[in-house]
Design a protein that fits this description.
Elements (H helix, E strand, L loop, with lengths): L1 H5 L6 H8 L6 E4 L6 H8 L3 E6 L2 H11 L8 H15 L4 E3 L5 E14 L6 E3 L5 E5 L3 E5 L6 E5 L4 E3 L6 E3 L5 E2 L2 E3 L6 E3 H8 L4 E10 L13 E4 L2 H20 L18 H4 L11 H14 L4 H15 L7 E3 L4 E3 L14 E3 L11 H16 L2 E3 L5 E3 L10 E4 L13 E6 L9 H5 L3 H6 L6 H8 L10 H21 E11 L4 H14 L2 E9 L15 E8 L9 E2 L1 H18 L9 H16 L12 E2 H8 L3
Parallel strand pairs: 1-2, 1-22, 2-21, 22-23
Antiparallel strand pairs: 3-4, 4-5, 4-14, 4-18, 6-7, 7-8, 9-10, 11-12, 12-13, 14-15, 16-17, 19-20, 23-25, 24-25, 26-27
Length: 635
């Protein structure tokens, strides 16, 4: 998008993309910077990049990404941290095999303990009795009574335990779809209801371990891993971690961040519904001991190193808490936010945080991920047209990138008529409230001095743009606020400056809110086109999922009054635009352009039509935009 925006229509796009693209002297703004992709790429092409976000955590992440090219080698510091933290914790992760062989734990399997509200008896909230699977060949399961692991053929659906002779049916477990069925009295109770009744977080029991004979080095082949029943020695290691954590807290009451979970204004109340009241309750004691000691050492680093290690630490948090699950078929951990929500996991998995090579999300692996990003920033590559990658030159900006924590409706730190291009991804009125997800990182990043105090951040993020679906007043307020942001975009753009943003929404309300906001912004539409979005890899992806975003392009030019009723000709022009792009992309194999993508692009084109993209006549006998958007959903 950046290359296309600066290129003449007759220019050789691919030559500019790989060789001659240069944005020096061009100012690019993203007023909803989020993860920072737009400003990072703009700066890499030499632009004077400005990023703004209401959430200081988003600003901290973007700042870290912008400085990746200047990052020094982190491995010496990682080695020092391994000596001061990792090696001292290693005994807590040491286990022995059945023959007494010394092993290193990779994953610990925990399960929620439930007291039945009817009969008061205690049970384990297992969703099934399968630990891992090897497609079409074998699976590893455990006894529902004694937890002894067993290796089975893939076709086996039940087994009798060789230790206690109990029969276990693999998929006949107490928890199905979040509801616990008491094995003693058959009382069915949603786990979330238990949390609301008790108002205390879940309690856990360690029942199994996945271990390896290797301690360092390359990734461990699956065939070398073994599953063990959690024995008394393993429970004792947990108890030692709890004792050590208490000693740390007694010596330093600020050893851990103890922030409460703000519940008054949360749109997603699942955390408090399950009984959590503090963010520290999302971790077990061994995890807290590791994180507390690691954070204490990171706080001692220089600012640049602290920022880099803090970024790795925040990524590491999502794989080192009690909201992680285990992908049995892949035999690896599934991080928190893999579905962009706080999802309760009745059988979470604890990771050995200091493993090298093996273990998705260990701290050494998180550091290496940062180093890979730094290496890319220093020697960038782009996907080649026919497969593979090719190196490209990074262009040094004439002005250093700037990142501000502020509100897109009040861009007071950006001068009028100073921006050449605004490239952004505006918030969706009823979509994920990312500031609520980033609340998870706030206590630790604040603890390490990387973001402002929670109270200050809360004041800022309360002004984030969001609305509730099926609430007309809320939607109108969202449209008005987003319209103010677009008005600010118009103010800061140079004459004939360009705004380009991506948008995808499945509801009429979402598109209507965007149309109203754009009408208030006073910018002129010049193009609507598709661009690949999630690339078909999301957990929610299925055959009917839209995979392409709509790109709406506007110029700072004189505008006309928004059209309330679309003529047949305007609707036909919008449909023709969507069809033209569909016919161009539907036959290519990499990312098919499906019916949902067509409907999304058609709706975007209708919004463009309402703003004068296909003529300015307001047909009193025409079709209202809302009705046209509803019809487009079925096209």
């Amino acid at each position: 998008m950046l290359i296309g925006a600066i290129s003449e229509p007759t220019a050789d796009f691919w030559k500019a993309y790989y060789e001659t693209g240069n944005l020096q002297g061009v100012t690019v703004l993203d007023p909803f910077v989020g993860g920072g992709t737009s400003v990072v790429e703009a700066a890499r092409l030499g632009a004077s990049a400005i990023g703004v976000d209401v959430d200081p955590i988003a600003c901290a992440v973007t700042t870290a990404e912008l400085t990746a090219a200047t990052l020094e080698d982190l491995l010496p510091t990682l080695c020092a941290l391994q000596e001061r933290v990792g090696k001292k914790l290693a005994p807590l992760y040491a286990v022995k095999g059945h023959d007494g062989t010394q092993l290193t734990a990779v994953h610990y399997f925990w399960v929620q303990i439930v007291a039945c509200p009817s009969c008061k008896k205690v049970g384990e909230a297992h969703p099934n009795y399968i630990l891992a699977e090897e497609a079409g060949q074998k699976r590893w399961a455990f006894c529902r009574k004694c937890h002894e692991p067993h290796s089975l053929k893939a076709i086996h659906k039940s087994f009798s335990c060789t230790s206690c002779e109990t029969k276990t049916v693999l998929n006949s477990a107490p928890v199905q779809s979040g509801t616990y069925t008491c094995p003693h009295c058959d009382k069915r109770t949603p786990l979330i209801k238990l949390g609301r009744q008790t108002e205390v977080p879940p309690t856990w029991r360690l029942f199994a371990i996945e271990a390896t004979p290797r301690t360092t080095g390359r990734s461990v082949p699956m065939k070398e891993r073994v599953f063990l029943k959690a024995a008394a020695a393993h429970q004792a290691a947990v108890a030692r971690a709890t004792k050590a954590l208490r000693q740390e807290i007694e010596a330093d009451p600020e050893f851990l961040p103890l922030h409460g979970i703000e519940d008054k204004y949360r749109s997603d109340t699942r955390l408090t519904d399950y009984g959590y009241r503090r963010w520290s309750q999302l971790f077990n004691d061994r995890q807290l001991l590791h994180l507390g000691r690691l954070a204490r050492e990171i706080k001692k680093l220089s600012e640049d190193q602290r920022r880099a290690f803090g970024l790795a630490f925040s990524n590491h948090l999502t794989t080192n808490c009690m909201l992680t699950s285990y992908a049995a078929g892949w035999r690896r951990l599934t991080p928190l936010f893999s579905i962009r929500a706080f999802r309760h996991v009745p059988r979470p998995v604890e990771l050995n945080p200091w493993l090298e090579g093996t273990g998705r999300g260990t701290f050494p692996n998180a550091i290496r991920q940062v180093l890979r990003a730094s290496a890319f920033a220093k020697a960038p590559k782009e996907p080649a047209r026919w497969g593979g990658f090719r190196e490209v030159e990074a262009v040094a900006p004439t002005t250093a990138p700037r990142v501000f924590s502020g509100n897109a409706r009040e861009l007071t730190f950006v001068e009028s008529n100073s921006v050449d291009m605004v490239l952004t991804d505006p918030p969706y009125f009823d979509n994920i409230t990312y500031s609520e997800l980033s609340d998870f990182f706030q206590p630790w990043l604040e603890h390490m001095g990387l973001v402002p105090e929670a109270a200050k951040r809360r004041i800022l993020v309360k002004r984030a743009l969001s609305a509730r679906r099926n609430n007309e007043e809320s939607v109108e307020e969202f449209a008005a606020n987003l319209g103010e942001a677009f008005s600010e975009v118009r103010r800061v753009l140079k004459p004939h400056g360009l705004l380009a943003f991506t948008f995808r929404h499945s509801t009429t309300e979402g598109w209507l809110a965007m149309a109203k906001a754009l009408a208030l912004g006073g910018l002129k539409p010049v193009q609507v086109l598709p661009m690949p979005g999630e690339a078909g890899m999301g957990l929610h992806t299925h055959d009917g999922t839209s995979l392409w975003d709509a790109v709406l392009v506007f110029r700072k030019r004189p505008t006309t009054t928004p059209i309330e009723n679309l003529s047949k000709e305007q609707i036909a022009a919008a449909r023709a635009n969507a069809r033209r792009w569909r016919d161009r992309f539907r036959r290519q194999d990499r990312l098919p352009f499906n019916d949902a993508d067509f409907a999304n692009l058609f709706r975007a084109s209708l919004v463009g039509a309402s703003l004068g993209l296909y003529g300015h006549a307001d047909d009193a006998q025409g079709i209202r935009l809302r009705n046209a958007l509803e019809v487009a959903a079925g096209q």
